[in-house]
Amino acid sequence: MLSAYQYDQASKEPHWKPAKVAKLRAQQPSIANWLYDRSSLTARLKQHCHFSVQIHSVAKRLAYPSENKILGLPQKTVCLIREVHLLCGNTPVVFARTCIPLNTLSGTYQQLSCLGRKPLGELLFSGPHIHRGIVEIASFSQQNVLFHRATQAKGVSKIWGRRSLFHLPQQQALLVNEVFLPTIDTMAR
Question: N or C: which end of the chain has fewer CB within 10 A?
Fold first, then answer.
């Protein structure tokens, strides 16, 4: 569970905008290339590097207020939260936070609670009945909680991310936040 301080920090979320209205392509073309790509990020990274997943935490915790809202859950709902870094070689290039409502962790999708170092993207993009819904984009500054969860880099003042709502069968869903670290610019486009 989040402490009162951590939950207060969660209220310092970025302002998410639907990808369709976020005017980023011309302002930041290199990062926009990653943010607007609707294919599997896992598959794309695997094409360019030795890919692996570094797990930070997998635990039942309170979802952030905007996560509850996009998932259609009551505020202060406990979800399974998985936080990982996606690595190219030994370099973290993406911080991913997945918010899985507990009712989604049943039947076929029980495996979501025990992925270990297996990339979630492999499951999401191989399931014939799973589809990506809403995609939103945000910039993160040092005032945003995900900025601090994603990077400890000194001298970084702004990073970009997206979040995608994935729809599973039987009215189930999960939310994937992907925060692109400055090291993503070293990747082939």
Answer: N
